[in-house]
Amino acid sequence: MLLFRSLLCAIGLAGVVYAKSSKGDSVLVVVEPKQQDNYSIFFNGLREQGYDITFRAPKAETPAVIEFDAPSFAHVILFAPDTKILAKDLTPQSVVDLLSHNTNVIVALSSKQTAISTLAAEFSLVLPPPGSPLMSYFPERTDPATVVPVPVPASHPMLTPNLPPVWFSGVPHSLGNNPLLVPILRAPSESFAAEIDGGSADALVDAAERGGEGLWAGSQLGLVTGFQTLNGARITWVGGVDIFSDEFANKEVVKGLKSGNEQFVRDISAWTFHESMVLRIDETTHHRVNSTTPLEQYTTNDQIVYEARISSYDPKTTTWVPYSGLKDLQLEFTMLDPHIRTALLPVKGQPGKYSVTFRAPDRHGVFKFVINYKRKGLTYLQSSTTVAVVPPRHDGYPRFLSAAWPYYTGAISTSIAFFLFSAIWLAADSRDQKKGKGHKSE
């Protein structure tokens, strides 16, 4: 029995050491069996990171993606862009269900009309008409116009700095106004969507006019775009599966300069699988100034201290470390609407700790301490704590109010005047009685 427990502990520790994602290390790859070897560099890189990869054909029924209303894998990769008929548990609605169960997804799109292509519209991505891949004739090269070298942003927080251009072949998309979208890679300014492979120029123009996107050209088009749901699940839309291929990973951009595809796809998978840009709130506390005890209710005009501890996930050590890099974090003290909105700043010398001191409003009721931090690419930070703000008790008010001295003076002067008036009146009446008695004796 002791040996069995030791074995379980060893297995658990091994999982902690090698699992690089904060959500788990199980990955389901949906790909045609004959095409698996086309992406061996990408898959081997995931295995080296400690991921447990399971392959499945697009039309196969097992292994199930969701079983007994629970996801079977922490992450899913859909590398079957041209498959028109998928298994029942890989329908567009099933992908949405995966995200609702906090399963992360990478989706490769196709220039053809497929079920997965129709799902993109649910995420505010607008695709050009079928048969309209991205094209560019610049820079001059011997490759087909549909194989485009795309410059990578030099300072994107999600990507390795100063990556060489990546090779791309696939379909672009325009981005809607959804604030949950995370642009990662945009098309070159000289590129455009073209009507080849059965496409129609008239259909392309009609789609542009109907959708209001303007021309399907330029850097406004997206090639790789992320989407982070409100519950924290991430999905990455990639315009073409070839960006993950061994051919593009080994292909040179110019003579002697290897493309950045291998590292680029590793970066976007790290973000999708919750390795990078992952934050969490470990603890929040509140108390009065000069006290450390949290209260369920505060008195109006109390000086309140609110503190939060935030950490970030380190995929190299698979641990959570204190993080003080947020400079625009805010705290709201709300009752229906925010009564107080103030900066929640990091505390010097205390990593991961953020603190602010503020005065409770002169308004009694049920209030909430609210942190609602949403920035593109970063994990959303949300916290809500309910407290009551009450008026002072009858013995909690000060004996004298400095603002009321005019009223005190009026009351005291009136009392003194009444006392003097009464004394003078009584004294005058006493003298009148003495005079009356003197006249009777005569």
Automatic annotation (TrEMBL):
Query: Which regions span the lipid bilayer?
Result: 405-428
One Pfam family in the UniProt entry: OST48_N
Question: Mind telling me which InterPro entries this protein's record contains?
Answer: DDOST_48_kDa_subunit, OST48_MD, OST48_N
Q: What is this protein called?
A: Dolichyl-diphosphooligosaccharide--protein glycosyltransferase subunit WBP1
Domain OST48 middle: where? 286-427
Would you kindly state one Gene Ontology biological process term found in this protein's UniProt entry? protein N-linked glycosylation via asparagine
The family classification in the record reads: Belongs to the DDOST 48 kDa subunit family.
Q: Write down the membrane topology.
A: Single-pass type I membrane protein
The region annotated as signal peptide is 1-19
The cellular location(s) given in this protein's UniProt record come to: Endoplasmic reticulum membrane; Membrane
The pathway it acts in is:
Protein modification; protein glycosylation
The principal location of this protein is: endoplasmic reticulum
Task: Name a single GO cellular component.
Answer: oligosaccharyltransferase complex
